[in-house]
Amino acid sequence: MAEQRQERADAARNRRAVLRAAERLVAEHGGDHVSLDRVAAEAGVGKGTVFRRFGSRTGLLRALLEERSLALREAIVDGPPPLGPGAPARERLTAFLDGLCGIAEANAALLTAHEQACADAKYTEPSYLFWHDHIATLVAEARTGLDTDFAGFLAHALLAVFDGELVRRTASPEEPRRFTRSVTELALALLDAPAPPRIS
Amino acid sequence: MAEQRQERADAARNRRAVLRAAERLVAEHGGDHVSLDRVAAEAGVGKGTVFRRFGSRTGLLRALLEERSLALREAIVDGPPPLGPGAPARERLTAFLDGLCGIAEANAALLTAHEQACADAKYTEPSYLFWHDHIATLVAEARTGLDTDFAGFLAHALLAVFDGELVRRTASPEEPRRFTRSVTELALALLDAPAPPRIS
DNA sequence: GAATATTCGGACCATCGGTCCGCTTGTCAA
DNA sequence: TTGACAAGCGGACCGATGGTCCGAATATTC
To answer: What average pLDDT does range A173-183 have in this prediction?
Structure first.
């Protein structure tokens, strides 16, 4: 069962149309200002269709975002080093962050829209959990002896920086990858910091 | 001109009533689920009054949050060290973060509501600008030679951790100030990290 | 106590996410 | 080819919500 008797041809066509329409609207207008009515209209389908395919506004944005990050995710799971398994934690982490920053820089508006839509559920999104787990693991590996919970917190802290608006503000015309550079420096600072003094 | 002929007595009374009502509702129900209709009803005033006083949902939440952080702000500007001027940057920063974390831990739900309402304008809020400037200055002072822009980025990164939901998730029953401890460790790690290698 | 500026309050509006259901259309077996 | 049936479509509809407006009410001032 691939997924219950295949998706009908028109359904697949509409799914693509909706994704492309949403993508276009988010790119043109800011992250918000993209109501589902407009997406449906732009895609040339009814609103019901959008919901049938994606369940909710959140689902639509999530689908777009996962489409963008699928390659990175696969490369991490079973691609060649330094992204994939095998490389030292430190190299894997910077390679991963480099990839994620690239996605963020190219999709800042989409990030904003997604954050807005997710709201509270942000920390339970499968994608978020995956990124978080990956970072936390690598951090713990690179800094042996670090408290596990604190490694998790550092992972949250690193991911917290991926805010659409912050990405947009950090980027600059003459240095498009400034966000990436900043995040990388931040991550390295965390890895290279001396062991924290025992607090309590 | 205090502010144009004083505020009328009933107006002041209503302002307080609305603030207290909003506070109560946010505390009881989660950060969202606090519509302005309900706030108005709970306060025993008309909806128009809420808007007249606070301009918008965002304005109301902001007012609540600034009420909570006013003391900290004043202590920083002209209070005694280590919060106020005079102490070494490192001590000032940890003292400040300690204070801000305290506020965050006590008002996680409010934080969530405010983030939701601010959306894109987050980085232009007077409060945010104040915190950001303060942190960036202290970081630059504690790590001389650090690129100014990067100090600013680190400030954003530190503030990005103050996400209502993250605060709630980091706190734990048996260790209420776990969020504070984590943030402090994070900040110290950033201050103590060795100078980053020149990238480009 | 009257004149006046300010404020009140809730009806009203537009928008938006999400639901529903009668109609259309792709699919597949005969 | 055709017919029957499941799957999908689309847009009218709904409830909630942020925000506006203006006649009524009231604090303030002289």
So the answer is: 94
